[in-house]
Amino acid sequence: MAIRIKKPVSDISAIPVLPSSKSITNRLLIIKALSKNSFDIERASTSDDSVCLKKILDDFKTTSGEINKTYNCGDAGTTFRFLTAFFALQSHYPVLGAGLNYPPLEGAGGGHSVTLTGSARMQNRPIAALVDSLKAIGINISYSNKEGFPPIIIKFSDNEIKNVINIDGSISSQFISGLLMIAPIFPDGLILNISGEVVSKPYIEMTIRLMEKFGINVLWENNRITIANQEYKTENIKVEADWSAASYWYEIAALSEHALITLGKLNGESIQGDRVIADIMEKFGVFTTFFADAIFIAKENITLPDSFEYDFTDCPDLAQTVIVTCAALGIKGKFTGLGTLKYKETDRLSALSNELKKFGITTEIQNGECLLISGKINSTEEIISTYGDHRMAMAFAPVALKVEQLILEDGEVVSKSYPDFWEEIAKAGFSINQNFVPS
Questions:
Q1: Catalytic hit among 317, 347, 410, 420
Q2: Which of 114, 259, 306, 389 could form a disulfide with 346 if both were Cys (CB 3.0 to 4.6 A apart)?
Q3: Catalytic annotation on 317?
Q4: pTM for the full model?
């Protein structure tokens, strides 16, 4: 259903509720499934991705003795990648979860298997780097359709398992995070040799910090990560609010004349790499005051830069937010480190270029990883395609502050990471029609 958005009639003063971090939640769900004792995950994310992962893990815990299980991960890329590693471990060493033994897998190599599949888009997102690294150490994985892409079949076997994995770090940090979390359960641990430029490095650091919180010792030297056989310790944990979701409120502030916004359950010591949005947005007049468990952001009148450059290698989920902000403010931009965007829910680089052009913004894609933009918004109303991508919808929504009205196709996609987004920006004064039918 299309959504029509109109800007508030007064200055923005809001205390929106942010979703919990799905990145942290999904890692905790895997760690919990790998732990001998249960623990509580307070304020867990209710995003589509986290709900999907929890449902699959819960089902496997009760039915893993069955032969030929199939799980559909939908559009949840993190879920698919973490489960690929999780089931690769299960194929040899059934682990403990929530204090209960998983049902025994009788007759290793006797036909038990798990098939992981997903949406049409998921089946066009590459998984070969992760699969190849697991196959190289002895895991029995095959493709059921197109080589290098989901669906995949993981068969339970008694192959000899090696403990050194070589993996390309330039495609997805989620491949590495998935391997790291299962590493302590292997009898000899795992050594990861990472080649290529490591993208989204802060997400790997997040994984390691969470593992260390649960008692795992991790040694990271240059491009080698070593994890010995260890046991996850358990303790209850609260999940932070999501800094990626907070970025859209920074964008709203940046595009407004005046804004005072308080965001709870965030702090300056976050383990989330996207906390860097607070630093980036100072360039656009949005400044942050940090408290123990909340932040306060305010728009100040400053002279905006004529141009802005940024490398998003470490924080690709912020790319759409910052790029659209620059376009809406008429700031010329050069944005690099965007190579991984083609592997997301949509080809985000092309999608950004297509939709910005509707507003009269000039765009140029270079070498598949750089986007140049220039020009100012020269339209009063546009219909924006979301491409089934939650971040396209939320990054473009604040542009309503610069036009008479904005129409987004398929606004429901925000449920993937921020289910209450439309309700929250309505509380901030935006006029939201969630049942709009374009003429």
A1: 317
A2: 389
A3: yes
A4: 0.92
